[in-house]
Design goal:
Blueprint lengths: L10 H18 L10 H22 L5 H25 L12 E5 L1 H14 L5 E5 L1 H6 L2 H10 L4 E4 L2 H9 L5 E4 L8 H6 L2 E5 L2 H8 L5 E8 L7 E2 L3 H7 L5 E7 L10 H23 L6 E3 L3 H6 L7 E4 L24 E6 L2 E5 L4 E2 L5 E2 L4 E6 L16 E4 L2 E6 L7 E4 L11 E5 L9 H7 L4 H6 L7 E3 L6
Parallel strand pairs: 1-20, 2-3, 2-10, 3-4, 4-5, 5-6, 6-7, 6-8, 8-9
Antiparallel strand pairs: 1-11, 11-19, 12-15, 13-14, 15-18, 16-17, 17-18
Helix pairs in contact: 2-3
Length: 473
């Protein structure tokens, strides 16, 4: 038909290239394995260089034979892999320049590597670390964090939503990805396609998911006292029924310790009750002859306050990022964790105001002296809580300077009076990752009446994530 209508001589390539490549790519994706960085640039170069190699071989020997075909293939591959190796060796990509950014998140990945090492050393015997990277890895940037965690040997991840899980797969993450929250059962095909494990939030949900007739990996959530998601610890009958559901492949079972961060006697007693009831259910499952999937019940504070619980995974969230939730938190284990994130902004304007003049919305700040103020291009639109107005401090060089007036959506003002060496273009630190800094996330969060978890998660997606040069690994 194509020839009859006068298509070009190579019509099979033009017409069938796209469907052929579609199915070939799907065939290649059946193989799961370690990522080989050299292959990506090599595949690009071989596509570009192959026609030139054909022309060069033809120029020196205008014959078509199996030998010449093999020679073209060999030369194309050798040249492509050599060029790819040079590309990776010299890394021609232009590095991001934070000097051009109004404000940005800066990550110290060496500190992240350190935290992984310290937490792994504290794990119960035979347990693995599950990196919790929901909400853009607690505001740190899920791409930078997840890809780096995988390089450090972390093989399991937890997210809150299916879209967060899909994003990780598109970043190239290969390990298990557990969705801790709700997913509409009508997205079961996506769960299968992207190899995501779904939490069974209750028994009716499990029935609906099974009725989709799509094989899905799942973890059973158990409510041991938090009364949020999960089947009750005394609901062995429905747990047994889950194992009979044809399309649900049970990979794990877990609970959440709701006050594991507290050292109050009454909270310790409640947590130990949760632990007993959870393991009680596991014991009943063993007696009933049910296979026991991978067990996990500790999050960050569960590990730090109850480190010896037998389990297969520990879900590390806030501890992975090197900070506590609150500055006064005390834990049984006190590993030397290092903060990963710093929040920075540029001084874009400096102006003088006279005694008695006001600054910002509602004139909440009135100068008690002739003052020098600076404007930073960052605000609550970037996730900085508005209730830090008049409370927060920033650091520029050696100066600790107060935020004055109301924090706006996109700007805030600081009082520079007495800091005569500060000028336009200088960098201000709003959240610090330096040891013992007064601007560590728990301290800043406490000023806003919240915790580090919320403060970091609020950091907006319009802030670029920059890897600190001295901390690139």
């Amino acid at each position: 038909i194509l020839h009859r209508h006068g298509f070009q001589r190579h019509d099979s390539m033009y017409v069938f290239l796209l469907p052929a490549m579609y199915f070939l790519f799907h065939l290649v994706l059946l193989w799961k394995g370690r990522r080989i960085p050299l292959l990506r640039p090599a595949s690009l170069v071989v596509y570009l260089i192959h026609p030139l190699v054909i022309a060069a071989v033809w120029r020196f020997s205008s014959q078509n034979s199996l030998f010449h075909f093999d020679l073209v293939c060999l030369l194309s591959l050798l040249f492509s892999f050599a060029m790819a190796a040079l590309w990776l060796r010299f890394d021609f990509k232009k590095p991001h320049n934070p000097e051009k950014d109004r404000a940005y998140i800066e990550l110290n990945l060496a500190n992240l590597t350190h935290n992984v090492s310290v937490l792994k050393a504290a794990l119960p015997a035979n347990a693995e670390l599950m990196g919790v990277v929901k909400r853009e890895a607690y505001g740190h940037g899920s791409y930078a964090v997840a890809t780096h965690l995988e390089k450090t040997g972390v093989k399991a991840f937890a997210v809150a939503t299916i879209d967060e899980g899909i994003a990780l797969r598109r970043y190239g993450i290969r390990g298990e990805i557990l969705i801790l929250g709700f997913t509409d059962v009508r997205r079961a095909k996506e769960l299968k396609t992207y190899r995501l494990s779904q939490t069974l939030i209750d028994f009716p949900y499990a029935e609906k998911l099974n009725r989709q007739k799509i094989p899905v990996s799942v973890h059973i959530a158990i409510d041991s006292g938090m009364h949020r998601l999960g089947l009750d610890t005394d609901d062995l009958a429905n747990v047994q029924k889950l194992f009979q559901m044809k399309h649900l492949h049970i990979q794990g079972i877990f609970t959440h310790l709701c006050c594991a961060d507290s050292r109050k006697p009454e909270d310790i007693s409640f947590t130990r009750k949760q632990i007993r009831s959870f393991y009680g259910l596991i014991s009943q499952m063993e007696t009933a002859g049910l296979p026991i999937p991978k067990i996990h019940l500790q999050s960050s504070y569960g590990l730090l306050n109850y480190p010896d619980l037998p389990c297969d995974y520990v879900r590390a969230g806030i501890s992975l990022y090197g900070v506590s939730s609150s500055p006064d938190d005390r834990t049984l284990l006190q590993p030397k964790l290092r903060p990963v994130l710093a929040l920075k902004a540029k001084v874009v304007l400096i102006r003088e105001i006279s005694r008695g003049e006001t600054v910002g919305y509602n004139r909440t700040f009135r100068a008690e002296r002739n003052s020098r103020i600076a404007i930073l291009p960052i605000g609550y639109g970037d996730g900085l809580p508005r209730n830090l107005s008049g409370k927060a401090m920033v650091q520029i060089s050696t100066h600790l300077l107060p935020v004055i007036g109301r924090i706006c959506m996109d700007q805030l003002a600081i009082d520079l009076t007495g800091a005569d060496d500060v000028s336009v273009g200088d960098t201000a630190i709003l959240i610090d990752n330096a040891e013992n800094s007064p601007l560590l996330a728990p301290n800043v969060a406490a000023l806003s009446g919240s915790i580090s978890n919320e403060l970091l998660c609020r950091l907006g997606t319009r802030l670029p994530v920059v890897i600190a040069e001295e901390a690139k690994v």
